[in-house]
Amino acid sequence: MVNRTLYFRELRGSWKLLVIFAGVLTMYITMIIWMYDPKMAEAMEQFEQLMPELMAAVGMTRTEDSLISFMSSYLYGMILLVFPMVYTIIRAHGLVARYVDRGSMAALLAAPVKRTSICLTQLSVLVTGVLLLMGYATVLELAAAGALFPGELDVAALLRLNSGLLALQLFLAGFCFFCSCLFDDARYSLAAGAGVPVLMYLMQMLANMGGKLENFRYLTVFSLFQTQSLIQGEGAGWLGTGVLLVGAVLLAGAAVVVFFRRDLPV
Amino acid sequence: MSVIEVSHLTRDYGHGKGVFDLSMEINAGEVFGFLGPNGAGKTTTIRHLMGFIRPRSGFCTIEGRDCWRQAAEIQRNLGYIPGEITFFEEMNGAEYLRFLQRYRGMPDAGRTAELVERFELTLRGKIKKMSKGMKQKIGIVAAFMHDPDILILDEPTSGLDPLMQNRFIELIQEEKARGKTILMSSHMFEEVERTCDRIGMIRAGKLVALDSTEALRQQYLKSYTVTLDDQEQAADFARDFGGKQEGCRVTVSARQTLEEIFLRYYGGDV
Fold first, then answer.
1. Fewer Cβ atoms within 10 A, N terminus or C terminus of chain B?
2. Which 3 state secondary structure label does DSSP give B198?
3. Nearest-CB residue to B53 (from A107, A115, A264)
């Protein structure tokens, strides 16, 4: 079902972007883990006292003194949500909508390769990129924590946290890919594919600030990624993860169906 | 036997754009010229044949297969030059052709080397930086590399210099001799006259003429009979203008070029 030639060629096309995002993640992950130091933690606490709303918005509120909860506050509130999301937005757009808009999709269609196969190939490229980024982040977290604070990290909790994060990123990938398959015009694909996730993240920020604003969490998928529950290994965390995964599969399926049925003005 | 069949194809884009109840058949081994001004519906028809868009009513088939439902099967034996050539711009020419070869699942490079030589194609350098003519040549190679039996060519010589246009016409003539079925849209009357057996002219989405190239010309054959002073003059006149002499009277026929016929059909809109 997947065209190998196209798959590897598109993977090569993702390479540069993957390296850039991996670089950014490397910088933040190592920096944040390195800051898990009583003295640095004090500095962060001062930040929290200075601007409690802003720190809360990006999820940077501390609950307990463990490396995993430190990481979940400072990495899983913004950095690990936003950067892979930006990668997904750029790549999902480039894999379908840009080709349709520019007309080069014609070259892909003018070959004995089924539309479904083209679409599934592009989807696998997107998913591969997300998996690589998440896999890299996990390995790096384990390595950095192991090197800087041996024995301090609850590895099982980290893996639970990252599986939830992966589900969230796959959901976003499904959504962006769906937008990329749906629209003729690259502008609309980008407006919807980037606009909706960014808006949802902003709502998550508002919800994090608490009080009445907390109701915003019902409007954003980010709230289905429940870091605390996942760290504790509670059912709610797994439920959110499951919902996200099901959503991801449904969106990806819808994208393939839409692409299969639609007119392509190329 | 018809290889390409378009039957009552209708696709209305509004404002008179689209194709309306279009029917035509192209037989095996035939070169069919598809003429019409910009926006008449040539590319829309071709997009239907390629399975890019779904007919709203009517249907089209190639080798008996439905162009929408069985597009991938049809493509196995079909070569296509798009009206506007856009490729993966960051590749160079050689990479692109190699990519297509593998993407199509071809066992080897097919006719690539021969065609590259024939059209003096330079494969180095990114496609993004190539001239329109060079991109067009890559499009030609991509359409013929797998030696398909059916060719759908949307303005295949646009951007080519006269020398290359001529080489392209020769290629079409050779392919025709090898029994290929070709549908070609064009604005170059010379290439259509030199290659096409039959011509369909489309205007505002409707077919306005469909006949053999020869018959279309015959239809517009004009004859003039002139009377000269003596038989000797008449004989000279007949020789110089290729007329028929009868005593002092000479009848000459003015064959109109395809271009003139075309302009007759489109008068105001060209």
1. N
2. strand
3. A264
Q: How many distinct helices (H) and strands (E) make up chain A?
A: 12, 0
Q: Please, are residues B197 and B214 in contact by the beta-carbon 8 Å criterion?
A: no
What whole-number distance in Å separates Cα of residue B48 and Cα of residue B40?
14
- Residue B132: what residue type? K
Judged by phi (left if over 0) then psi (alpha if -120 to 50, else beta), residue A68 lies in alpha
Closest-CA distance, B208 to chain A, in angstroms, reads: 25
Residue B270 has a pLDDT of: 43
Q: For residue B212, give the H/E element and its range.
A: strand B206-212
Is B48 in CB contact (< 8 Å) with chain A? no
Axis-axis angle for helices B162-177, B132-144 (nearest 10): 10
B82·A106 Cβ contact <8 A: yes
The first and second tokens of residue A217, run together, are: 């969490």
Domains of chain B: 2-212 (3.40.50.300), 220-262 (no CATH)
Tokens 């080897």: give the residue: B108
How would residue B254 be classed by pLDDT, with cut points 50, 70 and 90? Answer: confident
| Pure H helices in B29-158 | 42-49, 71-75, 93-103, 112-118, 132-144
DSSP per position, A226-251: -HHHHHHT-HHHHHHHHHHHHHHHHH
Domain spans in chain A, listed from the N-terminal domain onward: 4-261
Taking the C-alpha atoms of residue B193 and residue B172, their distance in angstroms, rounded to an integer, is 12
Q: How confident is the model at residue B15 (pLDDT cuts 50, 70, 90)?
A: confident
Q: Are B167 and B121 in contact (CB under 8 A)?
A: no
Q: Which of B19, B52, B76 to mutate to test the interface with A (most CBs of A within 10 A)?
A: B52
Residue of chain A whose Cα is closest to the Cα of B53: A263
Q: Which among B227, B108, B51 is positioned nearest to A260, based on CA atoms?
A: B51
Token pair, residue A87, equals 């990668």
Please judge whether A113 and B99 are an interchain contact, meaning their C-beta atoms are less than 8 angstroms apart. Answer: no
pLDDT reported for residue A64: 63
* Nearest-angstrom CA–CA distance, A200 and A180: 18
